[in-house]
UniProtKB/TrEMBL annotation:
Name of protein: CDP-alcohol phosphatidyltransferase
Alphabetized Gene3D superfamilies for the sequence: 1.20.120.1760
GO terms classed as biological process: phospholipid biosynthetic process
InterPro entries reported in the protein's UniProt record: CDP-OH_P_trans, CDP-OH_PTrfase_TM_dom, CDP_ALCOHOL_P_TRANSF_CS
Similarity comment text for this entry: Belongs to the CDP-alcohol phosphatidyltransferase class-I family.
GO cellular component: a single term: membrane
Length: 192
């Protein structure tokens, strides 16, 4: 039995989501705004000290759930909103890992480059496995390294100055989660 992360962060983001809902700000606008903020925070990886970059990224990704909560509060849940959120989440991850690879290039660190792109590929695989199985009505719930866990591991390793080690761990755990989701999907397909 895992920890329900939404219950942990809801007391923090619910008041913000309620305020944004009262201001009649659309969930899709929030999704787009958060993607722009994540892009800017990602650039900080290249140009600013790691601890400051980690703080900017933490702020940016902390609002990742606000759009969905605003949609629920305001009754504006749409299939397109879910699609937009998922699509821009992938773009945000691309910003983060590409900026990290550029950081590796600037600092002449081939391993950071390799593990930045490895982390990005397997982050995408985790998301793709779920999306593809859901096209066939085979839901995949959970997995060791879902997006919040991946981002938290990245931000913490960046803040502590263990970026390469964090990327290596992230890649390994993302590979594990990809195969975990393939196994869950396999069992689901067999039941259908």
């Amino acid at each position: 039995m895992g920890i329900d992360k939404r219950k942990l962060i809801k007391p923090i983001i619910y008041p913000i989501a309620k305020l944004l809902s009262k201001m009649n700000i659309s969930p899709n606008s929030i999704t787009i705004f958060c993607t722009i903020i994540t892009f800017l925070a990602s650039l900080s990886i290249i140009f600013l000290p790691n601890i400051i970059s980690a703080l900017f990224l933490l702020i940016a990704v902390s609002f990742d759930s606000v759009d969905g909560l605003v949609a629920r509060i305001s009754g504006k849940i749409t299939k397109f909103g879910g699609f937009l959120d998922s699509t821009l989440d992938r773009l945000s991850e691309g910003f983060i890992f590409t900026s990290t690879a550029i950081y590796g290039i600037i600092n002449n660190n081939d391993l950071i480059i390799v593990f930045s792109f490895s982390s990005m590929v397997f982050s995408y695989m985790i998301s793709y496995a779920k999306a593809r199985s859901e096209c066939d009505n085979v839901p995949i719930k959970g997995g060791l390294m879902q997006r919040p866990e991946r981002l938290l591991l990245f931000v913490v390793s960046l803040a502590l100055g263990f970026l390469l080690q964090g990327l290596i761990i992230l890649t390994i755990l993302s590979i594990f989660t990809t195969f975990q989701r393939i196994l869950i999907a396999y069992k689901g397909y067999k039941q259908n």
